[in-house]
Fold this protein.
Amino acid sequence: MKVVETAAELRALRAGLPGPVGFVPTMGALHDGHATLVKRARAQTRSVVTSLFVNPTQFGPGEDYDGYPRNRERDLEIFASSGADVVFVPAVDEIYPSDALTTVDPGPIGQVLEGERRPGHFKGVATVVTKLFAIVRPDQAFFGEKDAQQLRIIRRLASDLRFGVEIVGVATVRAADGLALSSRNIYLSKDERNQAPVLFRALRHAQDLFQAGERNGDVLRSAITATVGKSRLVSLEYVSVADSSTLAELSTIDREALVSLAARLGRTRLIDNMTLPQGLSPAGTGRD
Ligand code: PAF
């Protein structure tokens, strides 16, 4: 596995990689969810490029950019054992030279849900993913479904900007008790970790209601709020039942829906989601 730090080195290496080339961008603090993305890329492409870059522009003021867990050596071991061929580890000024002016605005889909609570977040994500795609020029790029809104934004980005990259969504990896794996889970205290699986239980409860025939969005939102409300340490920030493509809130679930939520447990903010009906993947692949 080769580790490179500059765009020029990456481009030179990329020229000699047999295609198709798969790409897994990450911010490090790797867990089994990331390893699953790399293994999936390994299984379906001939060369696997990954990146390790804690992107400052997607963190808002007061968020955890400075404290974000960083452990380069451990991350490189996980990349290697999962099958990466190349890891791109740029410095901040390699991606954001001091004279850079251009940013990428994902439009209205970036302004609801997470975008509403974290202003500028998706502009930061869209900008860094655009730069990484321009440097790596992957044939396929792999993203986790846990970041459901991010995945939809990146599909649109790849399609709207004509990148010719196929965006592959990979199912959320969960702990045995249902908690979605996240780099931020390490911030949870023991008691918070014990209560965190209520988020998945609440989504499952909504899924059960849906399977029993419930189609009223407010009934599902209330059921999730009530389930989470039973956990003393978990404070729900929002619950959404939205059109899976446009993310517009639904009063009646008459098409594929994305049920998503964010919650705070002490200083930790967690997100999770589920699509209804389950088993359908989000529309489109983003290849153009
Ligand atoms: O999902 C992430 O880890 C990040 O948002 C990404 C896509 C690597 C961009 O910094």
User: Anything to note?
Assistant: Residues 183-276 form a domain with the Pantoate--beta-alanine Ligase; Chain: A,domain 2 fold (CATH 3.30.1300.10). Confidence is low (pLDDT under 50) at residues 280-288.
